């Protein structure tokens, strides 16, 4: 019997990219795995809902939220529907390429890892040149997280994270926004799971192209790093 990969896609106002990412996911199906694609429409106010309705053949489950609650909340809702053996998180923009799934899943399928992080800063992969201070911010947050979790990750804030299903489903997640990233990192570090990193390509975008994370989320990430490493 084939193993199954559940792909959780939080979506907020991604009318320009959603159809393309869905097609890319389906184009990169892996022969030895069944795919289950779960969309969480997180209160989109643009034409995202229309795009979803027009592309129902490309996904399996839709969770339609009336208001925007944030990435962490959307992921928790998606986990309720995920029935796969493995779970991967996929942004609805085009910053991350589903052609990387095989690489990301490799250490788990080979029973070397329980969790795999992609890394935008590891290896010789393509990476769009963008904001200097974002890079400094990402590296600072990763460093702070590593100091408290005793991990040696290179990219804690990366979207591409893959889990054995029983790993992430047995963690009590609380953060509603981008604080999900430091929260999940702190909590898997405490559980002593086998964590791997693989280098990935990164096709980042600018704010005028729809990027949403801001400096406020950076301060929230510091709060989450301290909270979930020390208190929770």
Please tell me the total number of domains: 1
Strand order of the largest sheet: 3-2-1-4-6-5-7
Order of helical and strand elements: EHEHEHEHEHEHHEH
The counted number of beta strands is: 7
- Which range best describes the helical content: under 10%, 10-25%, 25-40%, 40-55%, 55-70% or over 70%? 25-40%
CATH architecture: Alpha-Beta Complex
Largest sheet, in brief, is:
7 strands, mixed
- Quote the beta fraction: 15-25%
For CATH, the homologous superfamily is named as Spore Coat Polysaccharide Biosynthesis Protein SpsA, Chain A
Whole-number average pLDDT? Answer: 92
Query: How many angstroms does the end-to-end distance come to?
Result: 38 Å
The outline comes out as: globular
What class do helices, strands and sheet pairing give?
alpha/beta
Describe it:
It is a single chain. This protein has 232 residues and is an alpha/beta fold. It has helices spanning 18-27, 48-54, 71-81, 101-109, 132-149, 165-169, 180-190, 215-230; strands at residues 3-11, 33-42, 61-65, 86-89, 115-119, 161-164, 195-199. Strands 3-2-1-4-6-5-7 form a 7-stranded mixed beta sheet, sandwiched between helices. Strand 1, helix 1 and strand 2 (33-42) form a beta-alpha-beta unit. Helix 5 (132-149) packs parallel to helix 7 (180-190) and helix 7 (180-190) runs parallel beside helix 8. It is globular, with a radius of gyration of 17 Å.
Outline of this structure?
By secondary structure, the chain is an alpha/beta fold.
List strands and helices in order, with pairings:
Blueprint: E1 3-11, H1 18-27, E2 33-42, H2 48-54, E3 61-65, H3 71-81, E4 86-89, H4 101-109, E5 115-119, H5 132-149, E6 161-164, H6 165-169, H7 180-190, E7 195-199, H8 215-230
Parallel strand pairs: 1-2, 1-4, 2-3, 5-7
Antiparallel strand pairs: 4-6, 5-6
């Amino acid at each position: 019997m084939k193993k199954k990969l559940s792909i959780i896609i939080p979506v907020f106002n991604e009318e320009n990219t959603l159809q393309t990412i869905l097609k890319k996911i389906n184009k990169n199906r892996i022969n030895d795995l069944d795919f289950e694609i779960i969309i969480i429409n997180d209160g989109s106010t643009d034409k995202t809902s229309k795009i979803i309705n027009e592309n129902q053949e490309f996904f399996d489950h839709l969770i339609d939220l009336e208001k925007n609650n944030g990435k962490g909340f959307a992921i928790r809702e998606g986990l309720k529907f995920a029935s796969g053996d493995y779970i991967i998180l996929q942004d609805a923009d085009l910053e991350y390429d589903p052609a990387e799934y095989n690489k990301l899943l490799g250490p788990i399928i080979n029973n070397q890892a329980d969790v795999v992080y992609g890394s935008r800063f590891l290896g010789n992969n393509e990476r769009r040149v963008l904001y200097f201070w974002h890079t400094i911010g990402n590296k600072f947050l990763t460093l702070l997280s590593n100091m408290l979790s005793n991990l040696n990750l290179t990219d804690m804030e990366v979207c591409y994270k893959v889990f054995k299903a029983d790993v992430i489903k047995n963690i009590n997640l609380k953060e509603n926004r981008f604080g999900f990233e430091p929260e999940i990192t702190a909590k898997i570090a405490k559980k002593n799971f086998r964590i791997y990193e693989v280098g990935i390509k990164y096709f980042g975008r600018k704010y005028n192209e729809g990027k949403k994370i801001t400096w406020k989320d950076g301060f929230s990430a510091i709060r989450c790093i301290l909270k979930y490493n020390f208190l929770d």
